[in-house]
């Protein structure tokens, strides 16, 4: 019986070639689009899934909309991270994060242009899972002038030589000493830094910012928090709202 069905189907296809071609082509395009959309969704959902504490990490967002118009952005105040960690018991860690544009790095009498230099706080290494190859994650970013290189960046600058405690000048503005080497961020990582330095050096690299990183009326940096409990997000969100305010330009 199946053989008869196949014969009938083939005869119909041959008799109505144009109509059949349109149907087959439409089905093929539909299947291809479904597969591509599925692959895209899978790729998007795989981002940052490698962080051991990912279910407890949240980025603080600011609704800067006015007059009932919602406008959510990631820019928050410089003092926010430390304040949230101090004032909200359900927050165990908090960090700021920013990346520079292309800067000149000078080392051992040589210079190269490099971008994606991350500026962050010591809690960054306790929150996000980027394994250290050399150095102590508890202290590698704890003091001004410290620097962490990715594995590929350390090899690019120093080859097979030990990069630890070497001095690297960032943008002609600040000398930093290598205090750690970290694994390169995976492809599916939100952060794609080449090296990390303490957040306070944003003023050295960008003097025009002045004291803005301590100004509660200036929103310009990302803030991430890690909760003590995965179920505390709702109550913490309500409390965070007391600290996040729009800047003067958006009011």
Order of helices and strands: HHEEEEHEEEEHEEHEEEHEH
The count of β-strands is 14
Q: Specify the structural class.
A: alpha+beta
Which residue ranges are poorly predicted, with pLDDT under 50 across at least 5 consecutive positions?
246-251
SSE blueprint:
Elements: H1 2-15, H2 17-45, E1 57-59, E2 62-63, E3 72-73, E4 76-77, H3 80-87, E5 91-99, E6 103-107, E7 110-114, E8 117-120, H4 123-127, E9 132-134, E10 146-150, H5 151-158, E11 167-170, E12 174-182, E13 195-198, H6 202-205, E14 219-227, H7 233-240
Parallel strand pairs: 8-13, 10-12
Antiparallel strand pairs: 1-14, 2-3, 4-14, 5-8, 5-14, 6-7, 6-11, 9-12, 10-13, 11-12
Helix pairs in contact: 1-2
Structure explained in plain terms:
The chain is of the alpha+beta class and 251 residues long. The chain has 7 helices and 14 strands. The strands form 2 sheets. Strands 1, 4, 5, 6, 7, 8, 9, 10, 11, 12, 13 and 14 form a 12-stranded mixed beta sheet that branches. Helix 1 packs across helix 2 (17-45). The longest helix has 29 residues, at 17-45. The model is unreliable at 246-251 (pLDDT under 50).
Supply the key terms.
extended; 30% helix; single chain; alpha+beta; 251 residues; 12-stranded mixed β-sheet
